[in-house]
Amino acid sequence: MKQDIILEAIDVVKHFGTGGGWLSRYPVVQAVDGVSLEVRRGETFAIVGESGCGKSTLARLLMQLLTPTSGDVLFEGRQVSAIKGQELRRLRRDMQFIFQDPFSSLNPRMTVGKLVGEPLEIHAPDLSAQDRRAKVAELLRQVGLRAEHADRYPHEFSGGQRQRIGIARAVASGPKLIIGDEPVSALDVSVQAQVINLLGDLSRDLGLTLVIIAHDLGVIRHMSDRVAVMYLGRIVEVGTTEDVFADPQHPYTQALLAAVPSMDGAVTDHSETVHGEMPSPFDPPQGCRFHTRCPHAQALCKTQVPTLSTGKRASHQVACHFAETLPAQPRPATAPQKSKTAEARFALYRAATEGGAIAHKEKQDRP
Amino acid sequence: MELSNLVLRFRGQPNDVVDHVSLAAKSGEVLCVVGESGCGKSVTAMALMGLLPPDSSLISSGNLRIGGETFDLTRDVVPRAMRGNRIAMIFQEPMTSLNPAFRVGDQICEAIIQQGGATRAQARARAETMLRRVGIANPAQRLLEYPHQLSGGMRQRVMIAMALANDPQVLIADEPTTALDVTIQAQILDLIRDLRDDIGMSTIMITHDLGVVAEIGDRIAVMYGGQVVEQGPVREVFDNPQHPYTIGLMSAMPGLERPGARLAIVPGTVPTIANMPEGCRFRTRCVFATAACARRPALSEIAAQHQVACHFVPLEENIEVAR
Ligand SMILES: Nc1ncnc2c1ncn2[C@@H]1O[C@H](COP(=O)(O)OP(=O)(O)OP(=O)(O)O)[C@@H](O)[C@H]1O
Ligand SMILES: Nc1ncnc2c1ncn2[C@@H]1O[C@H](COP(=O)(O)OP(=O)(O)O)[C@@H](O)[C@H]1O
Ligand code: SF4
Ligand code: SF4
Ligand SMILES: [Mg+2]
Ligand SMILES: [Mg+2]
């Protein structure tokens, strides 16, 4: 059975020249270099990788905010670059973006009501002013703000609240798909949890497809159904979040997971899993781009580009010449062990935050 | 090193931004200070280092003991001569603390020579040794480069080399890996752990990542609103978290819960210093808060070496939640 694919990238390439004319010897950044992926309707698809690997560029390509050097992006089976006029407006309605930085992505001179109402003006021009106000109030409530916030300006809000405003704006046009470029990275953990919950609720309630870019593996594991791992402009592994986290196949994914500080305090020697630092994107290594850091690299890796292909599971693809023969690095699939005491207190806390009735017993102060 | 009862206020503000904070780290020990942004971690570190200008900040109480010496922070700062060889600091963003106009080597040498004694040639040799020690290949070459020629991870290594060049007894690291990628963060944490074992310094590690604490910390101090609300040995606090804020922070971390489940949250956001409530500063966000919380809870011992500041601990004995 063919899955229902809402968004597809086919061998997408984006090279940035960094100035000078066509004859200049200024280097070219191969920010995204031959990425193919399929996002299924209704899923949360994550793209993970380290700084500079091309995640934001890929997100902008998917959104048509950048034109690819080559390759195609298809939305609901249609080539996005060929869509024009009225159709393009509809595409903009169906696909929305949430930015990383809640501080700079909102126009400081517009009220929240105006900010959230703007997409409605564009995409639902028939709405009367009164209906629009009512719709804005409903959207604000939906993202956990209050209707009276509509009259205030962005600077009056905290980072988490601004991110909620950004989300309300994205949801306003009734999109089918939202792409978030690091939507929670700038937030403190307590506020981050609030926004993660909100995105989960919205995707479930509205049947949204989410494409989430993040570098925090904890966030990805929590939020996504499937995940693609990027390294220097290419996807090196893609699969269900469960498979990729429990049984990573690509040496880079293995290194990435081993690098996450573990809550159970186990000490790993990271010199075994990855060497050195990310090479310059101006001059990426030939062959497998990871070979300069890979502990398993062999002669073949320096010349031959490995292609993304299916490994031991049909739903799990890896780009490594030796994926089949590498020692498996299974990782515990379960969350780290918590003590009984901690477990009980977490449960008590959760019950209280979820609206349980709280009673304080007699005994209070200690001296 | 031991800091006791630091109280600090920025001039013109109604509340103390650091409120009776005491921290201690034995030699060879890593104390992790955690909390969300704005809870006073960096300000505490800057005060320790004597880096806050007295015309904008007022320290009304605080003693710092390093080795055998004690400083009254209300009267004088740690003398410049001691910063560097007794107590050194690395910052979150290495680019702001390396001067972009000077070669890396000159900056490290300067730091070494300033502490007295060394000749230019000795300083240079020492700088090279330090770079090698923090895992930089080709140190002689790197010494001649400018900061912008180095990657973020390498700059952070240079900062560490510079901070450790004079064998300090205390290292304060303010989010040294927050700006770095996870594979590089892992390498830097390995490095700090090795150096701690070799040199036996006390380290104060400021972070907001509980994973980092589990990986490298011996003790943890949880800060909220400029106060320490809970502290103790890392394992003890993780296995027996007492303060509602500690519990909230731990439950809000994605990756600990079953994927996809709703995360437990800490409602609201940190109030500004001007809007800090009286009594327990956490009470505007605490799900268990009640009238009694208008009185400030004392930081008191709940288990061996484990202190917490909440009127209702242990929670399960004092509070019932009906579902
Ligand atoms: N407009 C541009 N012109 C030239 N180079 C660019 C441009 N935009 C991005 N790049 C380069 O392309 C590469 C990928 O950048 P991108 O922003 O997509 O990375 P990223 O994975 O989002 O990183 P981060 O995690 O730091 O946000 C980088 O080397 C970057 O410097
Ligand atoms: N120079 C300053 N003048 C006034 N307020 C400041 C100054 N530096 C920091 N603050 C405030 O002090 C509080 C604590 O800040 P900081 O120690 O930087 O927090 P963090 O825990 O994130 O390191 C914040 O509310 C911050 O806005
Ligand atoms: S192809 Fe070679 S260098 Fe690349 S990840 Fe596989 S083993 Fe390592
Ligand atoms: S003292 Fe009150 S407000 Fe403060 S943490 Fe304890 S229960 Fe919450
Ligand atoms: Mg980016
Ligand atoms: Mg700080």
Describe the structure.
The complex is a heterodimer of chains A (367) and B (323). Chain A has 10 helices and 13 strands. With 367 residues, chain A is an alpha/beta fold. Among the domains of chain A are: 1-94 and 208-336, Rossmann fold, CATH 3.40.50.300; 340-367. An 8-stranded mixed sheet of chain A has the order 6-7-8-3-9-10-12-11, with helices on both faces. Chain A starts with a strand and ends in a 7-residue tail after the last strand. Chain B has 2 domains: 2-86 and 168-322, Rossmann fold (3-Layer(aba) Sandwich); 96-166, no CATH class. Chain B has helices spanning 41-49, 94-97, 104-114, 120-133, 139-143, 152-164, 182-199, 210-216, 234-239, 244-252, 315-318, and strands at residues 2-10, 18-24, 30-34, 57-66, 69-72, 87-90, 170-174, 202-207, 219-224, 227-233, 300-303, 306-308, 319-322. In chain B, strands 6-7-8-3-9-10-12-11 form an 8-stranded mixed sheet, sandwiched between helices. Chain B has a 4-stranded antiparallel sheet with strand order 2-1-4-5, with helices on one face. The longest helix of chain B has 18 residues, at 182-199. Chain B is globular, with a radius of gyration of 21 Å. The mean pLDDT of chain B is 89. The interface between A and B is large, with 70 and 70 residues. Bound molecules: adenosine-5'-triphosphate, adenosine-5'-diphosphate, iron/sulfur cluster (2 copies) and magnesium ion (2 copies). Residues 10, 17, 35, 37-43, 56, 273 of chain B line the site of adenosine-5'-diphosphate.
- By CATH, the architecture of the largest domain in chain B is named 3-Layer(aba) Sandwich
- Provide the number of structural domains of chain B: 2
Strand neighbour order, sheet with most strands of chain A: 6-7-8-3-9-10-12-11
Instruction: Tally the helices of chain A.
Output: 10
Could you state the oligomeric state of the chains shown?
heterodimer
Strand content of chain B: 15-25%
Largest interface: A-B, 70 and 70 residues
Using the CA coordinates, give the radius of gyration of chain A: 23 Å
In sequence order, what are the helices and strands of chain B, one letter per element?
A: EEEHEEEHHHHHEHEHEEHHEEHE
Which structural class best describes the helix and strand composition of chain A? alpha/beta
Provide the β-strand percentage band of chain A. Answer: 15-25%
Tally the beta strands of chain A. Answer: 13
Shape of chain B: globular
